[in-house]
Amino acid sequence: MKLLLVSLVLLIVSGILILRKLIWFHKQASFSMVSIIIIVKDQEQWIEGFVRKLFILLKSLPQAKVLFINNGSSDKMLEVLRCLQRQYPFELMSVAGNRPEINILKLVNIDSLYPVLLKYDARGLKGKDLLSAPLFSDLARFNAGKFFVLSK
After folding, report:
1. pLDDT score recorded for residue 106
2. What is the architecture of the domain spanning 33-143?
3. Which residue, 48, 70, 89, 133, has fewest beta-carbon neighbours within 10 Å?
4. Weakest-pLDDT range from 24-28, 115-119, 120-124
């Protein structure tokens, strides 16, 4: 009888632990479902560092979708982004002309986006301002308590 009670208690405790682990996993999975839309223009010299830093932060969010919208750059930034697409998984769209307000809902299939949407307008940021953009601090909250090591 005691053996049956001990077995029952162990079964209940292990069931509770498994349930907690499943709940934790579900919460982590829903936080990793992030769509990030970044509007850029004329940032050829700094866009590579920006993209590399972005994807270092996104290592803990493997399901994140990233979309860059090129707002009619006059430099070779579009070519740089196309080269970076070979290394990093992001989509790239171009919008002709200088449009101060871009309606993302008209450009992007809303059904393909994840529940959490971060939109960031990086036009006008250059140099250190672009490489320390507020987007990175927004992404840091998704990385809270997670550690990753940069490789050489």
Report:
1. 65
2. 3-Layer(aba) Sandwich (3.40)
3. 89
4. 24-28
